[in-house]
Design brief:
Layout (H helix, E strand, L loop, with lengths): L2 E5 L8 E4 L1 H7 L17 E8 L11 E4 L10 E4 L3 E3 L6 H21 L7 E5 L4 H10 L6 E6 L4 H5 L6 E4 L3 H8 L4 E6 L4 H8 L1 E9 L13 H9 L6 H7 L2 E4 L2 H6 L4 H16 L7 E5 L4 H9 L6 E4 L15 H25 L5 H27 L1 H30 L1
Parallel strand pairs: 7-8, 7-10, 8-9, 10-11, 11-12, 13-14
Antiparallel strand pairs: 1-3, 1-5, 2-3, 2-14, 3-4, 4-6
Pfam family, one: ADH_zinc_N_2
InterPro entries: ADH-like_N, ER, GroES-like_sf, NAD(P)-bd_dom_sf, SV-ATPase_mito-regulator
GO molecular function, one term: oxidoreductase activity
């Protein structure tokens, strides 16, 4: 198969990488058919083509493109089959390209192909503050007289209210009752990226002729690592709905998984035509990607933690040209280790002095010399570690320190014993 080599990660050029919740799920092992480790994460990147393979048509070196590889986007050079590479408009920045393609692909297919949104309809949208949520809101606003119920945490309400695009912002803790207070009839469309109990609640909010769409399962991400119980619970909590029940209630259920469509079900041509439509909407000024923040590659762990905690509003983007955030200085541990060694040595001296007193003080000088040697050996090892941390000066001082330190320690112990005996 012809391969196009797209430069998606270069420290000298203006390139960007999209960070998606799917990356987080892969990292935590909460995704089907995970790649064999070690692997490189990343599904979305934008930059210039570095080289093209044999028989590649439609692309040349220097073209500005965005690509959707199945993993490996977090690399300096990414080999991507041409069917996953798309030209971007000349006026579009790489940051917009990395922020728009995957999120707006999902949103466009949901809004216009799966539910065929029409004038006068109402939508209940979970995670309205996320990258896909913001894309759905913008695309829904291209249809007249659509009512949007946005569900998210209370901390995001003020920022989202300022956009003026969401009719009703609802806290996720009790959104079913809040929706019922606003409209007793329910809603026409439910967009669910959470799964679990939300499937049942969302289905219960549908009007007759309503449509429920599941396009994610972020509820399985509940901790730092994959939890079998969180995955199992998310699926077991979903009620089984038979076609007969759908027939009786005049409701529809649907689902969408872009990763499966693109890489497993050969939907590349359909996706390419959809990307062209999205770029057309961008040129007309009808959609603009919302970028929450940009991060240096070295800070990717912090960026993913922000996504994990659902604190972002819009897209998170990785920018290799950025300087990483200053890291807090690590406190030196050598001092505490040395102190622990001295305390240990002092305790040993007391025990030896006690034994010497019980034996009548014989061979006292010999035992003290052995203790000094032991202390020198112990403190010498600790001092060597301290010298490694503190520099050559510490190493020079350490050569003279062990015996003196031992003597000082033994001296203190002797004084202490004298006080105790008196």
């Amino acid at each position: 198969m012809p391969i196009g080599f797209s430069r998606c990660f270069n420290f000298e050029d203006d390139v960007r990488i999209g960070l998606n919740f799917q990356d987080l799920m892969v990292r935590l092992g909460a995704i089907d058919s995970p790649p064999k480790t070690p692997t490189i994460l990343g599904f979305e990147c934008a930059g210039e083509i570095e080289a093209v393979g044999e028989e590649v048509e439609g692309f040349k070196v220097g073209d500005r493109v965005v690509a959707l590889p199945e993993f490996r986007a977090w690399s300096e050079l990414v080999a991507v089959p041409t069917k996953y590479v798309y030209h971007i408009p000349d006026e579009m920045t790489f940051q917009d390209a990395a922020a728009i393609v995957m999120n707006y692909l999902v949103a466009y297919i949901l809004i216009f192909d799966l539910v065929s949104l029409r004038e006068g309809k109402s939508i209940l949208l979970h995670s309205v503050g996320g990258g896909v949520g913001q894309a759905i809101v913008q695309l829904a606003r291209t249809v007249p007289n659509v009512t949007i119920f946005g569900v998210c945490s209370k901390s995001k309400h003020e920022a989202l209210e300022a956009t003026g695009l969401i009719d009703h912002l609802i806290d996720r803790t009790d959104y079913v009752n809040e929706v019922r207070k606003i409209t007793t009839e329910g809603v026409d469309i439910v967009m669910d990226c959470l799964c679990g109990e939300e499937c049942n609640r969302g289905y219960g909010l549908l009007k007759p002729m309503g449509k429920y769409i599941l396009y994610g399962s972020s509820n399985v991400v509940t901790g730092e690592t994959k939890s079998f119980f969180s995955v199992a619970r998310s699926w077991w909590q979903v009620d089984k709905v038979s076609p007969i029940k759908l027939f009786d209630e005049n409701k529809s259920l649907g689902g969408f998984n872009l990763r499966h469509l693109l890489y497993q079900q050969d939907g590349s041509e359909y996706v390419r035509s959809t990307v062209d439509k999205i770029f057309g909407l961008w040129k007309d000024g009808k959609v603009r990607p919302v970028v929450d923040s940009a991060w240096a590659l070295e800070d990717v762990a912090e960026a993913m933690q922000k996504m994990h905690d659902r604190k972002n509003i819009g897209k998170l983007v990785l920018d290799p040209s950025m300087e990483p955030k200053p890291k807090p200085a690590t406190p030196a541990k050598s001092k505490s280790k040395k102190q622990a060694s001295e305390d240990k040595g002092g305790k040993k001296d007391k025990e030896d002095d006690k034994k010497s007193a019980e034996n009548g003080g014989g061979d006292e000088k010999k035992e003290e010399g052995g203790d000094a040697a032991d202390e020198a050996k112990t403190n010498g090892g600790e001092g060597g570690e301290a010298a490694h941390v503190n520099g050559d000066g510490g190493a020079a001082e350490q050569k003279e320190e062990p015996a003196a330190a031992a003597a000082a320690t033994n001296g203190d112990a002797t004084e202490s014993e004298k006080k105790e005996s008196s």
